[in-house]
Amino acid sequence: MTDFTRALRRLALILPAVLLAPQPLLAQEPAPPTPQHLTPAGGTPWIYEGSDVPRDEEWIFGELPNGLRYAVRSNAVPPDQVSVRVRIDAGSLHEDASELGYAHLLEHLLFRESKYLGPAEAIPTWQRLGATFGSDTNAETSPTHTVFKLDLPNVDAGKLAESMKLLSGMVRSPVLSDANVQAEVPIVLAEKRERGGPAERAGNASREVLFAGQRLATRSPIGTEATLGAATGASVSAFYRRWYRPENTVVVAAGDIDPQQLAAEIEAWFGDWEGEGALVPAPDFGDPVAPAGADPANPVGEIGVVVEPDLPRSFTYAVMRPWRPVQDTVAYNEGLLRDALAQALINRRLESRARAGGSYLYAQVSQDDVSRSADMTFVNFAPLTGDWKSALDDIRGVIADALATPPSQEEIDRELAEFEIVFTSQVEQRRVLPGPRLADDIVNAVDIREAVAAPETVLMVFNSMRETITPERVLEHTRALFAGDVIRAAYVTPEAGEASEAAIRAALGETIAADAEARIAAQAIAFDDLPAVGEPGEVVAQAPIGVLDIEQVEFANGVKAILWANDAEPGRVAVKVRFGTGYRAFAPDEAVYANLGYAALIGSGIGDLGQEELDVLATGRKFGFDFQTGDGAFSFYAQTREQDLEEQLYLFAAKLAMPGWDPNPVIRAKAAGKLAYESYGANPNGVLQRDLEYLLRDQDPRFQTPTPAMFDAATPAGFREVWEPLLGQGPVEVLLFGEFDKAATIEALRKTFGALDQRETAPAEVLERAIDFPDAGETVIRRHRGDANQAAAVIAWPSGAGVDGLRESRRLEVLVSLFNNRLMEAMREHAGASYSPVVRSDWPSDVDSGGRIAALAQLRPEDVPVFFAEAERIAQELASTPVGEDEYNRVVEPLRQYVSRASTGNLFWLYQLEGATVDPRSIADLRFLLADYTQTDPGVLQALAQKYFGSRAGWRLAVLPEGQELATASGPASAGEGR
């Protein structure tokens, strides 16, 4: 058992103990029989057959007489949860031409009705068991498999038995009637519609080129309208009977319960399953083959030029080899590590070239075994202009150099240090690996026909082979990566006539000279050589905050830190630095620089050190450097470890004390922004990304997505002029949660954040800048240039903000969950009007305005009025009628389980306490946290609905195709219409 139990005992100090006790929904069942079909001691588990990879002893494997295989293990992360995966070895590649989309359609149908679950009972049943639909209960369909996923919280023997029973009924005995198929097909078509548009067309066209002659070229899991529309109960049942058999099934379970119990339940509920008819072998997926007459030395095959005016340029070419099953041995994995090293060396050189201002925005080499169809080495890049050939030549020149000359030992050592930190961290964190990830690892291993290895095994293999990694062997693997049976390419461009298949074929057929200029020379840079942030500061206050063992430390310069040193997550330290005033700091004409900050601020360096030098400093260390601009503060964030914590703190503090201003990251970020802008208009979702925040904030210029003209007008000098004073703003708050020595960390803080100069508080006019909400009135219209059957709709109401209302914000989350359930049911069942409508509440706690409740859906244009009507109806019903007991419990139980699970991790507490040094009232409210989510009376929820929904109509936005009007009584498009 992990030390999470200690965190839970501490949690009981501030949350009522009764709320943390298990809340069984089912009567305790008798213990099931002992499993009978485990791999015997000394035997070889099925996943390790033909492999000499050391077995991960924590997994227990079994195989039933009917052919079903399973894997189970004990895992207490998160506590009291079991994660179950049921994998069917059938995906879109197993479909006949008349069955396109059936594998995915079956995924839906198994949730609609089955042996133990009546029509539409699956989602509410899982909710009553505490599982949240979409996160705890879900499924996926790929070209090669279909996987059903359940993360069951608050587990006990009875809930486990009931859940296995329900899952077995879904997988073994779905009700595949004509009525169910007719009800579910519109929902699948809604999902297909929401995915559609230029990106999907370009993806499909590229796939048809890259996998020409193979099944994967024409078998996307979503299917076609024609085949889905023709589906019947009989035709779907035929697909089901062919592939849903025990021989094609693997069940995986990992959780906080005896693994013998897990195995016994799998055997009990799946042991007597028998397939119908003879076992059907999987179809031949085909091999990539070069066209007749291709040059064996450079076998360029199919080429595609895809013109999509609303998409940025992207170029992919691939060296392709047939995929074959492998013997997953130690030697094979050593080869994979050498392949990965070869790719990392090339990618570092390509990135260095892009940072310095090359002909492409990004470029990357990657090897992948794609859908058991091809072993491929991809080269992906984005040309900065229509001169795709210059970009292609530049990238091929870097690759040609890697193929001609071995890398230096210094380059190899640098990449090996990066690998080592990853593998070592996995070992350090093994006991806190979450059950869902462990279960997914088995599923993925089965999918690619390989074994699984414990983190210790991976590190052992790496350490035992690193002395054999020579420049010559890396060169050998690099050459193998770029040797293949055929080379294919797809170029997506917004400009017709910019490229032709013949021109690309000729360019790929050219011999390119090796370009060694991108090689990165060895640099000797050490933290000991860097300037100090300043004179170490003085601790003027240190005291517990009254929650768990968390302390607050204050330095003489005004910097405050919140620290929780604990061993709940070994090898992990979460660090967050909040400073300044966030979006409040920007003037109305500085939106472009606010936008560029995310992409360019960190890359612009520290002092005289650019990104290349910082990368050298990071070699062999676990660093992070995420940056965000919030409503009320800027923030840096990293996941690091105790050994690297002092240097991580130095990097953050040095960014504030002595920022660098390399112009290249600004120039690169401008180019990226311009390339992305036109794609926003390609579909409704893109328009929402571009405009929704701006509109919901009453068209506040600070939140506008910059236009290409705005990017053109921005300069590196202007970027520095805006950001330099912002990096000097106070207050500064540092949050450190994880495994570290408290005394040593406070000393590190003294040398870094405690050594910063005293910071000025922003002027009152900045702190008082409010975020307004638009007036409700006529529906605001925005247009997109995408498919005529796509639209989006948003309806929103203003809510609250600030620490004063934190408890109300939690209760509002309960109300919004009720709203979300009702809206999903209404829209999905309305002839598939929308696949995934969502309602969310945003309540900023570090400012006093800007909160809102918003409902959003992607749908058909003709269904936009339906969405508005349904959302308004639900809002008014919530305001007029208390929610019933069963519906209330289906929302509250998943929230209870979420809080109970999340509160065992450090990030949960970090998020709850950020900003507490500025406004400590949030600390006192923590004692009500679970009660607010799980003991809010239905009458209180009704009152909240009356407060926020009953007093005003919702603000509305419709995103429609160009040339279409909104069929609604709300009147013509408002004055805000535009693109």
UniProtKB/TrEMBL annotation:
The keyword Kinase does not apply. Keywords: Hydrolase, Metalloprotease, Protease, Signal, Zinc. Transmembrane segments: none annotated. Residues 1-27 form the signal peptide. Residues 75-191 form the Peptidase M16 N-terminal domain. InterPro entries: Metalloenz_LuxS/M16 (IPR011249), Pept_M16_N (IPR011765), Peptidase_M16 (IPR050626), Peptidase_M16_C (IPR007863). One of its GO terms (biological process) is proteolysis. Its EC number is 3.4.24.-. Belongs to the peptidase M16 family. This is Insulinase family protein.
